[in-house]
Amino acid sequence: MLDPALLRARPDDIARRLLETRGFAFDAGALERLEAERKQIQMRTQELQNLRNTRSKAIGQAKAKGEDVAPLLAEVAGFGEELKASEARLESIRGEIDAIVRTLPNLPDDSVPLGVDETGNVEQHRWGEPTRFDFAVRDHVDLGARHGWLDADAGAKLSGARFTVLRGRLARLHRALAQFMLGLHVDEHGYEETSVPLIVNADTMEGTAQLGKFVDDMFATEVGETTRYLIPTAEVPLTNLVRDEIVDAARLPLRMSAHSMCFRAEAGSHGRDTRGMIRQHQFEKVEMVSVVRPDDSDAEHERMTRCAETVLERLGLPYRRMLLCTGDMGFSARKTYDLEVWLPSQETYREISSCSNVGDFQARRMQARWRNPETGKPELVHTLNGSGLAVGRTLIAVMENYQRADGSIAIPEALRPWMGGADAIE
Asked: Could you give the CA distance from residue 80 to residue 52 in angstroms, rounded to a whole number?
């Protein structure tokens, strides 16, 4: 959530910047009018509250002296209704302002390139050469289906479209990838392994800005009168672990990693990537989340992205790093790097990880703070999140980049300890 003080001071400037950089328009005039009314009513409310307090004190003193308090009581009754109405309107205005503020996306960092969509993204660097073959390349669906390893029909029978059943050695390879990624982040990169709930409440979803305009992309459960949500990523519960807390400075940076199921309705992706496992309603991901001091967030963003890149390099998968433009970033991000892996069947790079510096945008919603030892006062932390990596998409990349002419799949050396020492799926 953007700083309300900044919005109060420069609503027109913020509206212009959001429109120019993110294509997001909002009525700054309406916000200014609400703010003006809020100030007026807040002043009157405080006057009435002070009047009530002074008259209450006077009533107590009059009673103590045995004096007639009827005139004072009548006076209090006279402005009591006005105070009640003023307090109710003040609360209503604050709610209207908060509702507007919560719809506004984060402001991009100055280093983010301007652009309206993915065509404005800027390549930072590449690693590895695109894999080439001297035989006809199969995609991951054909590679998996010919041995019954990947079964979309079974997934559809059980749950519907965009679900898949994995079997045998391919299911084990999928598990091996998750174990390898989590182990790498915990043992070498210093993240704390964390197991989190897959179903969270509305406050948790709101804390990372997942509700509002994104609610249609969420799967919800209702038990009695309680609504809970299946997590779209472990970023949600991991980041909310510091909600409503003041973190001791000595604990920062907090680095957490979790392997979890993720659930997305993919409401806006009809007709996109319907073949295979690229875009599923249920998938697995190894997530990284960092909570840091504000001055450290830029360096932490680079570090986190390198942690994700290390996974791809250990697996020998060609990739490129892209700096997303203003029009292609997520709602909460102020700066995002996407890692795109080479898929031979498509002869292009596809997103496999997204690492974002969110700044204090989520922390302000969550009231997640740290105590600055220099000032002794609580201040908002900065939060970051990144995929390290999406397990299903990494499986696709391994299958396609390590395929052989006979349809077998070589196993990257880094994964062999989790595959019983086997060097291929025959």
From this structure: 8
Pick the catalytic residue: 75, 87, 351, 379? Answer: 351
10: which DSSP letter? Answer: -
Catalytic, 354? Answer: yes
Q: Which of 172, 264, 303, 321 is catalytic?
A: 264
CA distance 240 to 236: 6
Catalytic residue check, 351: yes
- The domain ranges of the chain are 4-101, 118-425
**Residues 112, 116, 117, 119, CA torsion sign:** negative
Q: Which of the following is catalytic: 354, 356, 365, 400?
A: 354
Encode pLDDT of 2-14 as tens digits. Answer: 988 888 888 888 9
The CATH-assigned architecture of domain 4-101 is Orthogonal Bundle (1.10)
Close Cβ partners of 416 (under 8 Å, ≥ 6 residues apart):
422, 423
Compute the distance between CA of residue 43 and CA of residue 86 in angstroms, rounded to an integer: 10
Is 293 a known active-site residue?
A: no
- The residue length of the chain stands at 426
The answer to whether residue 264 is catalytic is yes
393 is catalytic: yes
Catalytic residue of the set 138, 162, 393, 400: 393
Instruction: Tell me the per-residue pLDDT of 380-413, one tens digit each, with 9 for 90 and over.
Output: 999 999 999 999 999 999 999 999 999 999 999 9
The span from the CA of 180 to the CA of 284, in Å, is: 13
CATH number for region 118-425: 3.30.930.10
Answer whether 0.85 is exceeded by the pTM. Answer: yes
